[in-house]
């Protein structure tokens, strides 16, 4: 499954790492400093288990249509993130919000 995660902060990176670990095709889309850190060092998860994965990380949404877009931005960035992603949302693309601050 091709998965784009909009927002490479703590929540987006955690979900990206977990999905990468089970073999999903994950691309994290984030700010330049986060993308650079992920590309240089990967994502290290420490908790019940500890692992490091190296998912793709970019600053611009790829042109290929994904199967799933996970929205992991701050809630105040929702409209902007979806506007940026609108060309990547196909007829069969699912969009899932895992944002903080929606309640």
Question: Top keywords for this entry?
Answer:
5-stranded parallel sheet; Rossmann fold; alpha/beta
Protein described:
- The protein is an alpha/beta fold and 103 residues long.
- The chain has helices at residues 10-21, 32-41, 78-85; strands at 2-6, 25-29, 43-46, 50-53, 56-58, 68-71, 94-97.
- The strands form 2 sheets. The protein has a 5-stranded parallel β-sheet, sandwiched between helices. Strands 3-4 form a two-stranded antiparallel ribbon.
- β6 (68-71), α3 (78-85) and β7 form a beta-alpha-beta unit.
- The chain starts with a strand and ends in a 6-residue tail after the last strand.
- The relative contact order is 0.24.
Radius of gyration, rounded? 13 Å
Q: What's the CATH H-level superfamily name?
A: NAD(P)-binding Rossmann-like Domain
CATH class annotation = Alpha Beta
End-to-end gap: 29 Å
Protein name: Ketopantoate reductase family protein
Domain Ketopantoate reductase N-terminal: 3-103
Organism: Thermococcus litoralis
Keywords: NADP, Oxidoreductase
């Amino acid at each position: 499954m091709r998965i784009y995660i909009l927002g490479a902060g703590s929540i987006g990176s955690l979900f990206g790492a977990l999905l990468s670990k089970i073999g999903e095709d994950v691309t994290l889309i984030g700010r330049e400093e986060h993308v650079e850190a992920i590309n240089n060092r990967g994502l290290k998860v420490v908790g019940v288990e500890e692992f490091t994965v190296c998912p793709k990380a970019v600053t611009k949404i790829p042109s290929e249509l994904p199967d799933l877009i996970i929205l992991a931005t701050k809630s105040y960035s929702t409209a902007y993130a979806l506007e940026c992603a609108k060309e990547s949302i196909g007829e069969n693309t699912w969009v899932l919000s895992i944002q903080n601050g929606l309640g």
